[in-house]
Amino acid sequence: MRSLISFVLLLLAAVASAISVTGERLLVVLDDVAEKAAYSKFFGDLDGRGYKITYETPKSESLSLFKLGEREYDHIVFLPTKAKGLGPSLTPAILLQFINAEGNILVALSSKNPAPTSIVSTLLELDVHLPPDRSGLVVDHFNYDVSSAAEKHDVVLLPAPGALRSDVKDFFSPDAPNGELLAFPSGLGQTLGSGALLTPILRAPNTAYSYDPKEQAESVDDLFASGKQLSLVTSVQARNSARLTVVGSADMLSDKWFDAKVKKSGDKSSVATLNREFAKRVSAWTFHEIGVLRVNWIEHHLNEEGQSNQSNPKIYRIKNDVTYSISLSEYAWDSWTAFTVPANDVLQLEFSMLSPFHRLPLKPVLSSPDSTTFSASFKLPDQHGIFNFKINHKRPFYTNVEEKNTVSVRHFAHDEWPRSWVISGAWPWITGIGATVVGWLAFVAIWLYSKPVAGGETKKTR
């Protein structure tokens, strides 16, 4: 009996751990609940990872994202709808309120259905721009699937995205040992503003472009965007680390393209698609299953012999030697692991008043299976005042780490100054004082103990 209870508890623990760190309640908004059958594998993967999925239509009277000021759901998935609006429960203001309440949103678009005005307005608030007609089509006459898009060239084939930069971790590239490709069918491209919160996950090939499929002219003069200007999958991470992802092709998430074989123009053989693994990684990032950092503890203390080693004191003295340490963990799928800074990146500590007096790299000094401790030692500046130990680590695809510890830095106390005889620069002055004192004492001694010289008697005359 005891072994059975232990097994059940372990099973429940495993299920509970295999979900997002921000919650398991997932809302899926679609035109008709029956449409979920076309995405059964995508939703099956989410269900297998522990999410409790609720399916609703925009017209549902019971649909509400908040109840008594609290979120009813932790995450939302929007699939394409034929409706121009999403109703009073899904207005742009409510969706932005949901993001401000640390909720996460995955938006899947399609060139077959114009994007709802609520979605368009929400994306505009985040500086993500869709074509003016809200239904532009991305095509590529060089990188397309010859079997399913021989005429329209609207099934764009491209490799896994790879790392954004050399100092950014790659979360979205599945292994492709046999040259597997991503299929992007009937997609709606986006252009991005210059906001620091925007990061493209998947960009279009250089030969791709977006146009209005309703225009039947042989040549397209007015393009929405082309090449690397087009983002096919876009990520937005708010300052509170809430996430919104825009997938330009909802068909990319469908069962049809999870198991499809595609053949690129000019290739001799067909290959499988990477869509299923890519969709898993994109949804996992959006719902805080990967790319999540946690601060376990922070400590700063004196690093001097003969001084008390109190942790996190509120006051230091100028020119003190101090050590600052921070412990970080990274959530990866179902457990907390040790955080490793990418090879060309650095975790920095600022010691600042109005501006940084020190900006120092934090080096890993201790690692365990679930955390890494980073540390730096330095000498406080010769400046008194109110200072901050500050960590401001903001990197693409990682949650933000913002930590600030305020301390006071005082002058030397009257009994902490070094004595004058210790200071070599004071030795000439001390010598001068000594010479003056010795000379004065010698003069006084000579004056007091010297006998006056005897003088001869003189006779006074009138």
From TrEMBL:
It comes from the Eukaryota. Residues 1-18 form the signal peptide. The chain crosses the membrane at residues 426-449. It is a single-pass type I membrane protein. Keywords: Endoplasmic reticulum, Membrane, Signal, Transmembrane, Transmembrane helix. Residues 307-451 form the OST48 middle domain. GO terms for biological process: protein N-linked glycosylation via asparagine. It is found in: Endoplasmic reticulum membrane; Membrane. GO terms for cellular component: oligosaccharyltransferase complex. Pathway: Protein modification; protein glycosylation. Residues 25-286 form the OST48 N-terminal domain. InterPro entries: DDOST_48_kDa_subunit, OST48_MD, OST48_N. Component of the oligosaccharyltransferase (OST) complex. Belongs to the DDOST 48 kDa subunit family. Subunit of the oligosaccharyl transferase (OST) complex that catalyzes the initial transfer of a defined glycan (Glc(3)Man(9)GlcNAc(2) in eukaryotes) from the lipid carrier dolichol-pyrophosphate to an asparagine residue within an Asn-X-Ser/Thr consensus motif in nascent polypeptide chains, the first step in protein N-glycosylation. N-glycosylation occurs cotranslationally and the complex associates with the Sec61 complex at the channel-forming translocon complex that mediates protein translocation across the endoplasmic reticulum (ER). This is Dolichyl-diphosphooligosaccharide--protein glycosyltransferase subunit WBP1. It comes from Neoarthrinium moseri.
